[in-house]
# Entry
Amino acid sequence: MKYNLDLAIPSKTAWVEAVIADFDSFLQDHADCERKASATAMSFVAKYPNRIEILPELIEIGIEELDHFKQVYELMESRGIQLAHSISEDLYIKGLMKLCHSGIQERFLDRLLIASVVETRGAERFKMVSNHVEDEGLKKFYKMLWISEAKHGNVYVKMALNYFPETKVYDRLRWWVEKESEVLHACPIRAALH
# Structure
C-alpha cells in the first residue's frame, strides 16, 4: 500500500545533467547523504525510545541506509574517489528543518513527514540517475536504491499514522509536499543529491 504522496514538482533535467557531468562529486555527496539518512533514523530511536511501535522499522532503516553508504563507498573506492573531508551544508534539508513546528508532538510529526518527503525525492532522483547513466552496473545500483528510498518514503508516513489521526497526517503531509517544492526550487542545481 502506498502511504506517501506524490511530489508537487519533478526534478529538473538540468539536475541529472549536472550529476552525469560530475559524477565523482555526486558520489561524494551521495555517500554523505546515506550516512545522514542512517543517522536520522537512529536519532529517532535516541529521541523517542518510548515509541516502541516504530523502533524496529527505524533500526532497520538505519542499518539499510548504512549499508547503502558502504556500497557507495565501495563504488567510490573502485573509482579512486575519496570521501569528502567534511560534510557540506545541505541547503535543502536546512530549508525544510527551518519550517518544523517547535512543539514536542508537532515536531515529531513534522520530522517523520520531512523524512518521508526527503526519501520520496531521493527515490525520484535515483530513478533519474538510473535512467541516465550508461554503465549497466550503475543503472542496476541506482534502480535498487530508488526502490528502497520509495519504500522508506512510505514507511515514515505509516509510522506517523501510529500516533496521529489520518486527516492530520495527510493535511500536514500535503503542506510539506508543497513546501518541499518551494525549498527545492530555491536550491542551486549542482552534482549533489539535493
